[in-house]
Amino acid sequence: MKFVAQALGLSEPAARKLEDRNILREAVIKHPFFADIIEAYNLEKKFGAYEEGTLIAKTNNSLEVIRGYPKIRRALVLYPTLKKHFKGEVAIEEKMNGYNVRIVKMGSNLYAVTRRGFICPYTTEKARLVFEMDFFRDNPHLMLCCEAVGDESPFVPKDIYGSGVHFYVFDIRVKKTNEPLGVREKEKVAEEYGFRLAPILEFADVKRAHEAVIEAVEKLGRQGREGVVIKDVSMKRPPVKYTTSQSNCSDLSYAFRYFNEYARDFMISRIVREAFQSFEFKESEEEFRQRCLRLGESILRPMVESIRDVKEKGRVAEKSKLRFYNLEVFELFKEHLRRMGVDARFSEPAEDNGSYIVFMERYMMSTTDKISNLLKGGFW
Amino acid sequence: MKFVAQALGLSEPAARKLEDRNILREAVIKHPFFADIIEAYNLEKKFGAYEEGTLIAKTNNSLEVIRGYPKIRRALVLYPTLKKHFKGEVAIEEKMNGYNVRIVKMGSNLYAVTRRGFICPYTTEKARLVFEMDFFRDNPHLMLCCEAVGDESPFVPKDIYGSGVHFYVFDIRVKKTNEPLGVREKEKVAEEYGFRLAPILEFADVKRAHEAVIEAVEKLGRQGREGVVIKDVSMKRPPVKYTTSQSNCSDLSYAFRYFNEYARDFMISRIVREAFQSFEFKESEEEFRQRCLRLGESILRPMVESIRDVKEKGRVAEKSKLRFYNLEVFELFKEHLRRMGVDARFSEPAEDNGSYIVFMERYMMSTTDKISNLLKGGFW
Predict the structure, then answer these.
(1) CB contact, 8 Å: B287 with chain A?
(2) Alpha helix locations (H) across chain A?
(3) Residue whose C-alpha is closest to residue B254's, from B380, B108, B105, B364
(4) In chain A, positions 93-132, which contact chain B (CB-CB < 8 Å)?
(5) Which of B259, B295, B311 sits opposite A300 (nearest CB)?
(6) Does residue A257 share a domain with residue A192?
(7) Which domain covers residue A218, as residue numbers?
(8) Pairwise CB contact (< 8 Å): A292 & B289
(9) A338, A285: one domain
């Protein structure tokens, strides 16, 4: 705890108090797989300049501060929001639909840190297979901010990005300060070290960026992709995100399938996005009706499916397929989920080409109980 | 305050404490129109056996306790809910879509008490024109629980019930105890005194009530009506309500038009109803798509309309047409709305056949501000 106090510029008792207030949490499981880390804590909430999800770790020979990935603000109308927020040239990048991880070197190994500031064993195992050490040896002070995507994602499984887990780098930042490289510099580094980048779709003058984004978003939407992040090329101003209607609806499907697990605000905010997009995209009546149907279906189909699941199978669960290269990582991952408060069941690992496939069922207790009670004749 | 303490069985200091905790509120404006009432308070929250909206009033010669109208629980699936809750014969009554008022005699006049326990000047004026005194002279201990509907409703204006304001009696209860008459007794009384009753659609054995309700609700839905209330004929068990898809969607339209004024739960609960109805009504794929489109449109159309209103007219407002027979009542009603925290503007009264027509615009400040900020380029 002393090292945390030192990192945050606090006295040790003040740091202890943060732990009592649940602002500081233990962030790593002690295990040979995480051998470099002696102790680690993360921030559950923003604290001063330090973002939520900041990880503070003590290794054999260093004190690491891995800043949390900053929240990206969302435009509900592109015009005038982009024009007001940016100046000069912006980059329009594809926003991949997976989960955000920061890849860092600590001690002599790589680690994948989740948005909330935990070291995820599953993602760390995959990151160590994908990323070489050369970049980190040359730049020990940097972290790769990536979207982890694919059909073997334990958190956001999607088929559209192909099989397995892939890492798309979208920012390169200084671990300790969160200072980002400019977009062109990031491109150069990615080329040099062979990283996959979240596609940079276009560079545009901010004056016409809203038009370029509308075009890009309509195209991405037809491909079932999530949306874009608009960035100041120099990264001096914070990025802004904007999503496709298909992605808003897909979020809604997810949220309404498990409607009692999710906050009401999650749903309403996505519905509001659709209204503003419809307003700004100047749709025909037929396009508007298509949007209404898409919205209505994305809400009702998953709910009816969940009601049927409870009626027929007694419960609602989210299924995903995982792959482990080392069964110890499987054990570690189970412990990781327990700590996150996730109630999941797993199939026996099945060998597949030197690795192991495991099917995970995450039990959605709150939605199951609510539906079950209503089906038995309970009142709302 | 002493009379309130007496009515609730409290000491006077205890009653004062309830006022300090905002459980007891002053409930009437002093005015010759309300001449019979010396003082009145209502309950903002349930207190012991006394329902939220209970009115306690002191008149020249009596102490009145007008019990709040009890909340009616809602079935999300008709089977097995009805079968579980009722026994023997039930009445299926139409649920009218207006606002709930209790008509009572206090002193020598009639008063219309709103759901929250206030005496509404607008509704009182109309009630005095509609109801004769004979029923109340014969039954001073009873109150008429009515739905006030019509296109001149200040709260829920609807064209489907014709022009003006109409009162449909759905329960007759003992003011002081909330004990209801049985359904057949209510029918007899209504016939004797010439009240309009909320239509009793059918008497059914509870074993097949769910089928009868599905049939009734599909028919009412096609007519744009709200739904049904299912009642134990003896009224020994509390009633249960169930609404049409059209009414759920119409509520959603209203809520999403003024999306920042309304609680998130209001919206989600209505969406959940649609899912359970779709599940229970065993729809064809085409009927299901129709429901999805109806749901999607009921959400998006009003929101886009509100965004346009802010863009073009600077604000979102709800318009309604009111009629006053006495301009003093207009002044009283304005004061009533101010006390309710409603921000409304009014046109000059225009004479119409011995009465006055006034157009009311209720300004939706929260939704207006939110949309306005987003249209100017603010972030969500």
Answers:
(1) no
(2) 2-8, 12-20, 81-85, 121-130, 134-138, 183-193, 206-222, 245-257, 264-280, 285-313, 327-340, 365-375
(3) B364
(4) none
(5) B295
(6) no
(7) 73-94+201-243
(8) no
(9) no
Q: Answer whether residue A380 is part of any domain.
A: no
Structure tokens at A213: 């984004």
Contacts of B260 in chain A (CB under 8 A): none
Count of positions (residues) in chain A: 380
> How far apart are the C-alpha atoms of A11 and B215, rounded to whole Å?
71
Same domain for B193 and B57? Answer: yes
> Both A39 and A23 in a single domain?
yes
Chain A environment of B309 (Cβ under 8 Å):
none
Q: Is B187 helix (H, G, I), strand (E, B) or coil?
A: helix
Give the tens place of pLDDT for each residue, B305-333: 999 999 999 999 999 999 999 999 999 99
B312 found inside a domain: no
Return the number of other C-beta atoms located less than 10 Å from residue B277's C-beta. Answer: 24
- The answer to whether the Cβ–Cβ distance between A377 and B292 falls below 8 Å is no
Contacts of B282 in chain A (CB under 8 A): none
Classify strands B73-74 and A166-174 as parallel, antiparallel or unpaired.
unpaired
Q: Which residues contact A295 (CB under 8 A, 6 or more apart)?
A: A249, A252, A271, A274, B295, B296, B299, B300
Give the 3-state secondary structure percentages of chain A, helix then strand then coil, rounded to 5.
40, 30, 35
Mind listing the pLDDT tens digit for each residue in A21-59?
999 999 988 999 999 999 999 999 999 999 999 999 999
When computed from its CA atoms, the radius of gyration of chain B, rounded to whole angstroms, is: 22
Are B156 and B167 in contact by the 8 Å Cβ rule? The answer is no
Q: Say whether both B126 and B263 belong to one domain.
A: no
